[in-house]
Automatic annotation (TrEMBL):
<dbReference type="InterPro" id="IPR056861">
    <property type="entry name" value="HMCN1-like_VWA"/>
</dbReference>
<protein>
    <submittedName>
        <fullName>von Willebrand factor A domain-containing 7-like</fullName>
    </submittedName>
</protein>
<dbReference type="InterPro" id="IPR052577">
    <property type="entry name" value="VWA7"/>
</dbReference>
<keyword id="KW-0325">Glycoprotein</keyword>
<keyword id="KW-0732">Signal</keyword>
<feature type="domain" description="Hemicentin/VWA7 galactose-binding">
    <location>
        <begin position="417"/>
        <end position="486"/>
    </location>
</feature>
<keyword id="KW-0964">Secreted</keyword>
<feature type="signal peptide">
    <location>
        <begin position="1"/>
        <end position="18"/>
    </location>
</feature>
<dbReference type="InterPro" id="IPR056475">
    <property type="entry name" value="GBD_Hemicentin/VWA7"/>
</dbReference>
<dbReference type="Pfam" id="PF25106">
    <property type="entry name" value="VWA_4"/>
</dbReference>
<dbReference type="GO" id="GO:0005576">
    <property type="term" value="C:extracellular region"/>
</dbReference>
<dbReference type="Pfam" id="PF23560">
    <property type="entry name" value="GBD_Hemicentin"/>
</dbReference>
<dbReference type="InterPro" id="IPR036465">
    <property type="entry name" value="vWFA_dom_sf"/>
</dbReference>
<feature type="domain" description="Hemicentin-1-like von Willebrand factor A">
    <location>
        <begin position="230"/>
        <end position="370"/>
    </location>
</feature>
């Protein structure tokens, strides 16, 4: 009985906390919407959702513009979701009552708030976006909760507490914390006053941040910046002499297509590469400047065939913001020479989120020569197109459509089977269906929900790759019958839609508080994990996500997992086992009228038997430790060599530079790397821990540790 009483109390507290965090989420959304409306210079009224806010700001879609030119709400909604998630973590995982104004003397709470504010602006200097959003969430919670958890209103105050944002402002006497008298409840007489002040102070906080960090960074922080970055990486070695003119014309056509859109790019980049060097990175917000620099390129020099393609890519991506969604176009006729940089590139892509498309003047059958490009295509959700000087221009429409900001993937399959019929759902929000075929001589029959054969319009027609589109497809179940093709077949179906599904794997969810640490990179074998799906868009309240399907890459079902509803736009699965091999994920949803929604997550999820984690700590002012742990989930021991690379601003003993150790079967190995900062004026930079096989030299993975982010 005692156990049940305690359990009941925990459940009641969780419900109350869930109510409180919902209040924080509502206030934060209202504040962000208002500050965004102010930036957009539109009426400061209450907007129902992001789609309404953006449509008022940018208008409806003109009929003569493609959906790829529409201003997207996805980055904006994702930023709000990240702030919500961080508020949740802070509210429920902080054990220090000073963060909640639950001490009668509020000085210690004000010190905590000042510390959070200082940390936010430290990260703002280098625009560490993820950390800024985490600290912003904490500040918003503390600002909002001040009015419900103190006696501010009871003391007769009806204005904002200036000292919350300005530590130099005089502290009003008689203000005490721990005033938990129910003001968070809707029926409390002071509830509306507390909520109004919480909203006003949230808006004031956002305005002060905008003033201090500047409008550009502030818009990026909230995901309301203008168009994405467009970058061109062009091979200018002598072997490109027959291709360079067509490549330059193609790049200029792409750039001009974007510059003339309703949401033109904030900036353009041009990076040439060859061997043994890469060119100077050109960055401009003016497409005419980039056009002029592109026209200066001349194909000359070079020695052996491979070129420094990855070095050029890394140079570009290092100059992107986090979550940039940039489009990078690579033109070359040679394999990559610097494939040892693959892990570093993969880490950067996971953080910056560019899409990389390769236009290769090469023979498609040389799989070994293009292996690196195929891998990059997979983890950046890009493309590899084999082109010639005469047909490269036919890929422009495809690449512009590929960059459609409103595009969602409906289905992706590898290793297609001849004679197989593949069914897929088209929901009412999809206004254009696109079918990409990566195979030669592909013949198929496409049928709509009525069973009538449909002839799609050809967008791109290359030897090995074709893309088709169907405007205003009828909602319902469509079918595609694969009749014949040569070479390995791959098919992708995408649709332009007003609804986006955001998916992530998280650590196993063990409570009723739906949250978890996001799992990135390779997933450990046979480990219990959870999943969270957020639905964004103007019709986000319509579909209910019922299932996630774990599939092999050829579409064969491994497992179907039921999802539970958290609120109108959030769904989750608490616990399930990772499969024994690589897989893809499909999401199945329905709305109240019975329409079916289908989305496939872009990533291929890789399962591994070897995992690593790292953490940075400060031992004293000039000495740091990188803690690392390697877990071996297989039945075979692993002989590991670890190499550490760090910039010249740090030193370390030779012992730490390169080490060898064995991780036994179903066991782990952990240790530290000690680094010393040479001078107080030294810059903090990244450290790389490269883990490889002692015998073969094959790299298992590279862990990049940002020396700015300490785990205190």
């Amino acid at each position: 009985m005692k156990f049940l009483t305690i359990l009941s109390l925990i459940l009641i507290l969780n419900v109350l906390n869930a109510f409180k965090i919902d209040s924080n989420k509502i206030l934060t959304k209202k504040a962000i919407f208002q500050i965004t409306a102010e930036i957009f210079r539109i009426p400061l009224v209450e907007y129902e959702n992001a789609a309404e806010l953006f449509s008022v700001a940018f208008g409806s879609i003109p009929s003569n513009l493609s959906s790829s030119q529409v201003v997207t709400t996805k980055p904006f909604e994702k930023s709000i979701n990240e702030i919500d998630t961080n508020m949740f973590k802070f509210k429920f995982h902080s054990n220090d009552i000073n963060y909640n104004w639950k001490m009668e003397n509020i000085n210690s709470s004000l010190e905590k708030l000042e510390s959070i504010r200082d940390t936010f602006y430290v990260h703002a200097e280098k625009f560490n976006q993820d950390y800024m959003r985490a600290e912003l969430a904490k500040m918003l919670v503390m600002h909002q909760d001040f009015y419900t958890n103190t006696n501010w209103l009871e003391n007769g105050h009806s204005d904002e507490a200036a000292f919350l944002q300005d530590s130099s402002a005089p502290l009003v006497t008689g203000v005490n914390g721990a005033s938990l008298n129910g003001k968070e409840e809707p029926d409390h007489p002071d509830h509306n006053k507390a909520q109004q002040l919480a909203l006003l102070t949230s808006i004031s906080l956002l305005k002060s941040i905008r003033t201090r960090i500047g409008l550009r960074k502030f818009k990026l922080l909230l995901g309301i910046e203008g168009g994405k970055t467009i970058a061109f990486n062009i091979d200018d070695t002598g072997s490109m002499s027959s291709m360079i003119k067509a490549a330059k014309e193609h790049a200029i056509m792409i750039g001009l297509s974007y510059s003339g859109s309703r949401n033109p790019p904030q900036k353009y980049m041009l990076q040439s590469f060859n061997d043994p060097t890469i060119g100077e990175l050109i960055i401009s917000s003016d497409i005419s400047v980039i056009e002029k620099e592109i026209n200066k390129l001349v194909a000359t020099g070079g020695g052996d065939t491979p070129e420094l393609c990855l070095s050029g890519l890394i140079e570009v991506i290092n100059h992107l913001e986090d979550n940039s969604y940039a489009e990078i176009f690579v033109y070359t006729d040679a394999p990559a020479k610097d494939t040892w940089l693959m892990d570093e590139l993969k880490d950067l892509v996971s953080k910056k989120l560019p899409r990389i498309s390769f236009l290769l003047n090469m023979v498609p059958t040389r799989a070994s020569a293009t292996q690196a490009y195929d891998l990059i295509k997979e983890f950046s959700n890009g493309d590899v197109l084999y082109v010639t000087p005469t047909n490269i221009k036919s890929s422009v429409d495809f690449l512009i459509a590929k960059a459609d900001v409103s595009s969602e993937q409906l289905l992706q399959l590898k290793n297609l089977k001849r004679g197989e019929i593949y069914n897929f759902s088209v929901d009412p929000t999809i206004d254009e269906l696109r079918i990409s075929i990566d195979a030669r001589d592909f013949v198929f029959v496409l049928k709509n929900p009525d069973g009538v054969a449909v002839s799609p319009t050809v967008i791109t027609d290359l030897v090995h790759f074709k893309m088709f589109k169907v405007k205003s497809p009828k909602s319902g179940t469509w079918s595609l019958n694969v009749q014949s093709f040569n070479s390995i077949g791959k098919m992708k179906l995408e649709g332009s839609t007003s609804i986006a599904f955001d998916f992530k794997f998280v650590a196993e969810i063990n409570s009723d508080l739906i949250d978890g640490l996001e799992l990135k990179g390779q997933l450990p074998l046979n480990t219990r994990i959870g999943a969270i799906v957020n639905v964004f868009g103007s019709d986000a309240s319509k579909p209910k996500v019922n299932y996630l399907e774990i599939l092999k890459e050829n579409g064969e079902l491994i497992e179907r997992i039921s999802l539970q509803k958290y609120d109108t736009s959030k769904f989750y699965a608490k616990s399930f086992l990772t499969p024994s091999s690589d897989f893809v994920v499909k999401l199945i949803a329905t709305d109240e009228t019975g329409n079916s929604y289908q989305r496939m997550v872009n990533d291929v999820f890789h399962v591994t038997t070897l995992t690593a984690k790292t953490g940075l700590r400060s031992i004293r002012n000039d000495v740091y430790s990188i803690n690392f742990e390697i877990n071996n989930l297989s039945g075979n021991e692993k002989k590991i060599k670890m190499k550490v690379e760090i910039c010249d601003d740090f030193s370390m003993d030779d012992f730490y530079k390169e080490r060898q150790f064995v991780v036994y079967e179903f066991d782990y190995f952990s240790d530290v790397v000690i680094l010393k900062k040479k001078s107080s004026n030294s810059d903090l930079c990244n450290a790389k821990l490269i883990f490889s096989d002692q015998d073969t030299g094959n790299v298992y993975f590279t862990k990049v540790v940002d020396m700015n982010y300490l785990e205190w």
